[in-house]
């Protein structure tokens, strides 16, 4: 099976890259505020692992809301970083690229603790996979870490601290703000592992 990974440059996808060693990693710049740092982080991590790294660009910034778009959160947002249909959007864009590269599976870094977003739940993964599989190309979507928290994933993946240090977790921009939910998760994960946060 040929498996691609949606590599956002964050801790979860970088850990999955180390753990699952996909045939290709795909970064999607959809117009999010931290895109430049995420792309650089993903590229550095992929190079450290010897993984092929591809970039897809589609500026959807006009459609975004919340921290990732640099705008106030929508009234229906479950969290400050929520962007409408974000995982559906980026899976569609990455999936299109994955098919061009002959892949049959696309992995995403959803965790057990991502359930506060509807598109981070197992039901979403199952439904989006069914939707993409029934179309031409038959691309399957999987979330290999859906049963883990971030610290559990890092431990299972056995990723070295030196490689995980490349990850960029901030939702608000290219420099870590230290206050958004992404930065807090990054700090708490490293603290749970007994590592010194960077």
UniProtKB/TrEMBL annotation:
Keyword Ligase assigned to the entry: answer is yes
EC number(s) given by UniProt: 6.3.4.20
What are the protein's GO molecular function terms?
A: ligase activity
Concerning InterPro entries, the annotation shows:
QueC
Does ATP-binding appear among the keywords?
yes
One short Pfam name that applies is QueC
Keywords associated with the record: ATP-binding, Ligase, Metal-binding, Nucleotide-binding, Zinc
Q: What class of enzyme is it?
A: ligase
Pathway(s) this gene product operates in, as recorded in its UniProt entry: Purine metabolism
- For this entry, the protein name equals 7-cyano-7-deazaguanine synthase
Q: Which organism is it from?
A: Brevundimonas nasdae
Question: Mind giving the lineage of the organism this protein is from?
Answer: Bacteria, Pseudomonadati, Pseudomonadota, Alphaproteobacteria, Caulobacterales
């Amino acid at each position: 099976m040929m498996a691609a990974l949606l590599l956002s440059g964050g801790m979860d996808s970088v850990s999955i890259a180390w753990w699952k060693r996909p045939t290709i990693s795909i970064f999607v710049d959809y117009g999010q505020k931290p895109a430049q740092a995420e792309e650089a982080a993903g590229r550095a991590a992929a190079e450290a692992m010897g993984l092929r790294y591809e970039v897809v660009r589609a500026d959807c910034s006009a459609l975004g809301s919340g921290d990732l778009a640099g705008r106030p959160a929508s009234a229906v947002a479950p969290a400050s970083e929520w962007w409408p249909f974000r995982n559906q959007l980026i899976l569609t864009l990455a999936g299109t690229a994955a098919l061009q590269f002959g892949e049959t599976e696309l992995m995403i870094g959803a965790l057990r603790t991502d359930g506060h977003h509807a598109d981070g739940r197992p039901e979403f993964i199952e439904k989006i996979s069914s939707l993409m599989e029934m179309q031409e190309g038959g691309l399957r979507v999987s979330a290999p870490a859906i049963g883990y928290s971030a610290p559990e994933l890092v431990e299972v993946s056995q990723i070295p601290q030196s490689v995980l240090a490349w990850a960029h977790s901030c939702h608000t921009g290219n420099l870590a703000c230290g206050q958004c939910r992404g930065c807090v998760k990054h700090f708490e994960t490293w603290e749970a592992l007994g590592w010194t946060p960077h």
